[in-house]
Amino acid sequence: MKFLTFRTEEGLKLGVKTEKGVLQVQKTVEELLADGERVLDEVSSYVRRTLESGNSDVFLNEEELSLGPCVPNPGKIICVGLNYRKHAEESNMPIPEYPILFNKFDNTVAAHGDIIDLPFNSEQVDYEAELVIVIGKTAKRVPKEEALNYVFGYCAVNDLSARDLQFRTNQWLLGKCCDGFSPLGPYLVTSDEVGNPNDLGIRSYVNGEIRQNSNTADMVFYCDELVSYISQFMTLQPGDIILTGTPEGVIFGYPKEEQVWLKDGDEVTIEIDKLGGLTNRMKQEV
């Protein structure tokens, strides 16, 4: 199933994308992730009954909705650096021996369609198309062979990065944690619908021009390896998310004379097979 959130006067509501439109369900994303199998069964039955009823009035037009982040309140936001071979090569950095982990915070969370501020104190903001793993079960020291059983689903993210701030010191956090730097969505797609997460086309576009065009098969550490590895050191809880790295084609990887950083008015779209397209427009902060 494809889940989304949308904004209303009463706050964010949860919906399911169907062939007839968006069907609102009386659950929250937090309830969905905390009790996945039971809630999924309830939602699946409700969607089926509603579709069979022939009542089209209950379906909402997605184009008329203001979408929220598909995971509005993630717990831990864990990121993986240099996790695509060709991206490591374009960055002139060695292929990692172990996953390079860093974190973001919830101030970075934004939604499909949101305007993203380019910080007033950065001149080198870059895009990064990434696959996100959304944890659905408590995972501690899980073997790689079982790791994907702890995943509820997947979504897309633009892991925006202010490169001049990122490389100001040896710690990357400053350039990764600006407000709105992790738009998530448009959909949270369940694991069964995605299938193999390491066989998905992944692309980014700036103003309609394709910049990244790769496949999640190019990851250094696959999704099952990442969940297993991280769970050896910290307990993963439902609602935690893992940003799995970006492929080649980011601005940082261009020759310096060809680097044109994101600017006011630029529109960036992240596309991942089976997960839809995530689009945001940039606005220069003053």
Structural notes for this entry:
The protein has 286 residues and is α+β, with helices and mostly antiparallel strands. The chain has two domains: 2-67, no CATH class; 71-284, Fumarylacetoacetate hydrolase, domain 2. Helices cover 18% and strands 35% of the residues. It is built from seven helices and 19 strands. The chain has helices at 29-34, 36-53, 85-90, 163-166, 173-176, 191-194, 223-231, and strands at residues 2-8, 11-18, 21-25, 59-60, 67-68, 77-81, 100-104, 109-111, 115-118, 125-126, 129-135, 151-158, 161-162, 182-190, 201-206, 209-215, 241-243, 267-272, 276-284. Strands 1, 2, 3, 4, 5, 6, 7, 8, 11, 12, 14 and 17 form a twelve-stranded mixed β-sheet that branches. The chain starts with a strand and ends with a strand. The mean pLDDT is 96. Belongs to the FAH family. Residues 76-282 form the Fumarylacetoacetase-like C-terminal domain. Keywords: Hydrolase, Metal-binding.
